[in-house]
């Protein structure tokens, strides 16, 4: 459920939503063993991670020979980083089993940089040194092709954003970067990766076509994996504040702080309501929730908070929240929800979008549609009384009400789920709208 640009007048999806607390002193393991090509970035990479750790309060444990790949040490860590590792013979059988336990049983996280995808290459990838540990390549998400592996080491590439993600925040696109860009056509890419960044065409060959250079995937027990093929040269790691360091910092924080608690979002709906956009979401349960922020963007990258909604705090039943965006952009509108916990931690929903086309104002509008039983009625003429009649699918009137204010609620929870017609009758005429009740 990671789509970003579904464009329609009504978008509905279901997901589990988690809020994300932070921790006092998290540990990451920085692993750099190279039994193939050695990029000579071990200590530069370590310095960058130590710099990030000092800024964000986590500890870095360095390993260049696999000695930390045991349950005792891995059990204390949140993330294992494969930074420019290479080759097929670094970890022994028990060390490999410990890493699989770390990811698949504990649900902990794996971050790979550049030649991490030239480590334990998948058996289906071309070239040599493949086939001894397909779990690793499947978990990381890819294995680079060989002969050739990549562009020149100093190729200037144009990097574009494919979808917004916590790992990409704070980076301006297009991002023009000099690096060694890997090829994937004859290598291996897992089917469940979610590409975040791609490099534009880098040459005339088929494998030079635009291709992913950063992705994430979600593994067993909600483990998180992030990989970028950037980071060939030592210079990537030595200067603070670069886009590359921002990318790695963001990915680490996404992994370290995204520890799920039992807070679930059921449905999130976005629909056009005449000259407005109506949002509605249902929480299945809440625990220590403080408030929601509704964020909107016209490009899916830069976001602005447009509404705050108080959350339930604690709830073990479905709760419905609604918001009407009265000033949407003409054209694409992207929305996401941010839930802030009582301790200040927070999480985001997936992003949904709607292409808004202004319509002539009507006297009456209703939202959300579909709804669970509570519908909001907007009546443009405050001083004009409004009679409402609801008809079922066989044209039998099943509900009647009178509306005196410009906005009110219509409670149809007593009616069974189905399709209905709402007839709004006012002195100058009548208007019929369709309702769908879940």
CATH superfamily of the largest domain: Class I glutamine amidotransferase (GATase) domain
Shape: elongated
Structural class label: mainly beta
CATH class of the largest domain equals: Alpha Beta
User: Mind summarizing the main beta sheet?
Assistant: 9 strands, mixed
Q: What is the overall number of helices?
A: 6
Number of folding domains? 3
Write the CATH architecture name of the largest domain.
Answer: 3-Layer(aba) Sandwich
Summarize model confidence as the mean pLDDT: 86
Helix content: 10-25%
Gap between N and C termini, in Å? 22 Å
Please list the strands of the largest sheet in the order they lie side by side: 3-2-4-5-12-11-10-7-8
Secondary structure tally: strands: 28
Tell me the Rg in angstroms.
26 Å
Layout of helices and strands:
Layout: E1 10-14, E2 26-31, H1 42-56, E3 58-63, H2 71-74, E4 79-83, H3 93-105, E5 109-113, H4 134-140, E6 142-143, E7 155-161, E8 175-179, E9 188-189, E10 194-199, E11 211-218, E12 224-228, H5 235-238, H6 243-257, E13 264-273, E14 276-287, E15 289-297, E16 304-310, E17 314-315, E18 319-325, E19 331-341, E20 346-348, E21 352-356, E22 364-367, E23 374-379, E24 386-391, E25 397-403, E26 407-411, E27 418-426, E28 429-437
Parallel strand pairs: 2-3, 2-4, 4-5, 5-12
Antiparallel strand pairs: 1-13, 6-9, 7-8, 7-10, 10-11, 11-12, 13-14, 14-17, 14-18, 15-16, 15-19, 19-20, 19-21, 22-23, 23-26, 24-25, 24-27, 27-28
């Amino acid at each position: 459920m990671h789509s970003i640009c579904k464009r329609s007048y009504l978008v509905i999806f279901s997901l589990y939503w988690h809020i994300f607390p932070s921790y006092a002193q998290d540990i990451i393991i920085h692993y750099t063993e190279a039994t193939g090509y050695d990029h000579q970035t071990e200590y530069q990479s370590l310095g960058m991670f130590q710099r990030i750790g000092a800024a964000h309060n986590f500890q870095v444990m360095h390993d260049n020979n696999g000695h930390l790949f045991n349950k005792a040490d891995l059990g204390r860590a949140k993330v294992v980083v494969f930074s420019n590792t290479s080759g097929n013979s670094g970890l022994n059988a028990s060390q490999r089993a410990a890493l699989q336990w770390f990811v698949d049983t504990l649900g902990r996280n794996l971050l790979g940089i550049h030649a991490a995808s030239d480590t334990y290459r998948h058996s289906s990838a071309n070239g040599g040194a493949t086939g001894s540990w397909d779990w690793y390549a499947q978990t990381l998400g890819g294995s680079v092709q060989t002969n050739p592996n990549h562009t020149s080491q100093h190729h200037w590439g144009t990097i574009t954003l494919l979808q917004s993600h916590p790992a990409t925040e704070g980076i301006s696109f297009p991002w023009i970067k000099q690096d060694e860009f890997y090829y994937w056509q004859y290598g291996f890419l897992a089917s469940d990766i979610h590409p975040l960044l791609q490099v534009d065409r880098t040459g005339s060959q088929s494998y030079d076509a635009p291709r992913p250079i950063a992705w994430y995937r979600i593994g067993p027990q909600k483990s998180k994996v992030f990989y970028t093929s950037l980071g060939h040269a030592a210079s990537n790691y030595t200067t603070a504040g670069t886009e590359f360091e921002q990318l790695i910092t963001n990915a680490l924080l996404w992994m370290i702080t995204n520890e799920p608690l039992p807070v679930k979002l059921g449905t999130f709906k976005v629909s056009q309501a005449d000259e407005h956009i109506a949002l509605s979401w249902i929480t299945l349960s809440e625990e220590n929730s403080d408030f929601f922020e509704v964020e909107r963007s016209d490009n899916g990258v830069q976001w602005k908070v447009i509404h705050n909604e108080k959350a339930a705090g604690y709830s073990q039943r479905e709760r419905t929240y609604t918001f009407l965006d009265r000033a949407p952009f003409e054209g694409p509108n992207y929305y996401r929800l941010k839930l802030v916990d009582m301790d200040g931690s927070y999480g985001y929903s997936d992003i949904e979008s709607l292409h808004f086309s202004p319509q002539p104002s009507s006297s009456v509008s209703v939202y959300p549609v579909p709804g669970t039983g509570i519908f909001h009625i907007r009546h443009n003429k405050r001083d004009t009384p409004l009679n409402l009649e609801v008809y079922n699918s066989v044209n039998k009137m099943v509900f009647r009400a009178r509306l005196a204010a410009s906005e009110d609620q219509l409670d149809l929870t007593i009616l069974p789920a189905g399709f209905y017609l709402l007839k709004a009758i006012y002195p100058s005429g009548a208007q019929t709208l369709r309702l769908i009740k879940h």
